[in-house]
């Protein structure tokens, strides 16, 4: 049976990915799951992020999804590999779970001239070392500097991302990463929540620095993946519908998601275990 493509994030951040995927591939159905009750994941241990992500993946499988995108860097960094290698063969070897780190970094080669790249992310993503590791595999000459921004996700989740108070925290981490490496000419927003802070980021980042936001790259990579995997593509339903699941209040989710996606959204509350 055909089914929607599952999109998972710890909260609202994955909506920035969903939006770009829907723009590029509007014909498919999508099922978004935000674990808003347990966000943020970025400060949690490897074991907990893995456990929560696996629960979400199982839920989306139960809902029928054949293909899931972990639209969360923290989950991609800490849970993806184990789920792909250990859990999928056991649960259902015909299903697929994809992450968003690889599609993001494939594009940096053409952007950086100094070969110094910065990555902003949650403490979990930065301490996992996933970005430098993956970048090393593809472009060994690139020097990668990371900066964890622990308060950026809470600013977004609490609707403070466009308020004055956010300026202080945005500036603090942009200054810090450029102090660590002043040759950076390309900066990856390695957290799906961060595009919501883009106006503030642009305000405090020198204009010579390229900002790499993930949505468009992930959407292009998904299109390419579906073209290369007709057996998966044929199992994705195409009715241009989108459902939203959240582990917190459905009304709060619907209100905030409606702002992100500029449309009227209904959400359903579920629990994960
Ligand atoms: N949006 C997620 C990411 O891309 C993480 C947010 C969180 O800390 O839960 O890393």
Report on this model:
The chain is α/β, with parallel strands linked by helices and 273 residues long. The chain has 2 domains: 5-100 and 216-269, Rossmann fold (3-Layer(aba) Sandwich); 102-214, Rossmann fold. The chain has 14 helices and 10 strands. The chain has helices at residues 14-24, 46-62, 73-78, 80-91, 101-105, 108-111, 123-128, 130-138, 152-157, 165-180, 198-204, 215-228, 230-233, 250-261, and strands at 5-9, 30-34, 67-70, 96-98, 116-121, 143-148, 186-189, 210-212, 242-246, 268-269. Helix 11 (198-204) links the parallel strand 7 (186-189) and strand 8 (210-212). The protein is globular, with a radius of gyration of 18 Å. 47% of the residues are buried. D-glutamic acid (DGL) is lined by residues 9-11, 13, 39-42, 72-74, 122, 125, 153, 191-193.
Short description:
This protein has 273 residues and is of the alpha/beta class.
Write the layout of secondary structure elements.
Layout: E1 5-9, H1 14-24, E2 30-34, H2 46-62, E3 67-70, H3 73-78, H4 80-91, E4 96-98, H5 101-105, H6 108-111, E5 116-121, H7 123-128, H8 130-138, E6 143-148, H9 152-157, H10 165-180, E7 186-189, H11 198-204, E8 210-212, H12 215-228, H13 230-233, E9 242-246, H14 250-261, E10 268-269
Parallel strand pairs: 1-2, 1-3, 2-9, 3-4, 5-6, 5-7, 7-8, 9-10
Bound molecules: D-glutamic acid.
The site of D-glutamic acid (DGL) has 17 residues, from helix 3.
